Amino acid sequence: MGSGWLDEASSTAVRKDGLVRAAAVEYDRNVSFSTSNGPITLTVAVASFATTGGATAAMIRLDTALDARAGAVPVSTGPLADGGHATTTQGTVEGVGALQIILVWRVDNLVNSLVAEGRLGGLQLDQLLPVAATQTANERAG
């Protein structure tokens, strides 16, 4: 439905902030889109920076870039780690209302993201926040 959390311009910019390495994995559910609840696709990524300052600078760039996307609506993530930020974008897939949620947050020198896509009305940010909270706890524990 939309582009992920890191577009080409942002990717170039965060390299200047000291990006060391990144990893991502994508999960897909094989269910009927028109009646689905929860995410149909979920992409989880983490980027490691040389310093916490570099990760903080990257978060500022990412937040600005995500908010500037056509149709993006910033939404609150509550007390999620450092600099938690989310946007939603609506569209259609096969004539059915669709929603993309991009959630980004920082833990020390790590920038995390969850990108979820699903049916409008069947996907909510509240479904993603527990996953993000678990990831944050795991990263803080070392």
Helices and strands in order:
Blueprint: H1 8-16, E1 19-28, E2 41-49, H2 52-68, E3 73-75, E4 82-93, E5 96-107, E6 110-119, H3 129-141
Antiparallel strand pairs: 1-2, 2-6, 3-4, 4-5, 5-6
Put the structure in a nutshell:
It is built from three helices and six strands. It is α+β, with helices and mostly antiparallel strands.
Structural commentary:
- By secondary structure, this protein is an alpha+beta fold.
- The chain has one domain (8-141): Protein Transport Mog1p, Chain A, CATH 3.40.1000.
- It is built from three helices and six strands.
- It has helices at residues 8-16, 52-68, 129-141, and strands at residues 19-28, 41-49, 73-75, 82-93, 96-107, 110-119.
- The protein has a six-stranded antiparallel beta sheet.
- Helix 1 (8-16) runs antiparallel to helix 2 (52-68).
- The radius of gyration is 15 Å and the shape is globular.
The amount of beta strand, in percent, is 35-45%
- Specify the helix fraction band: 25-40%
Spatial order of the strands in the main sheet? 1-2-6-5-4-3
Order of helices and strands: HEEHEEEEH
Any idea how many domains? Answer: 1
- Total DSSP E strands: 6
Low-confidence stretches: none
* Cα-atom radius of gyration: 15 Å
CATH third-level topology: Protein Transport Mog1p, Chain A
Sheet having the most strands? 6 strands, antiparallel
Estimated structural class: alpha+beta
Annotation field: number of helices: 3
- What is the CATH class designation? Alpha Beta
Measured between the Cα atoms of the first and last residue, the distance is: 35 Å
Query: Which term fits the overall shape?
Result: globular
- State the CATH architecture: 3-Layer(aba) Sandwich
Report mean pLDDT, rounded to a whole number: 88
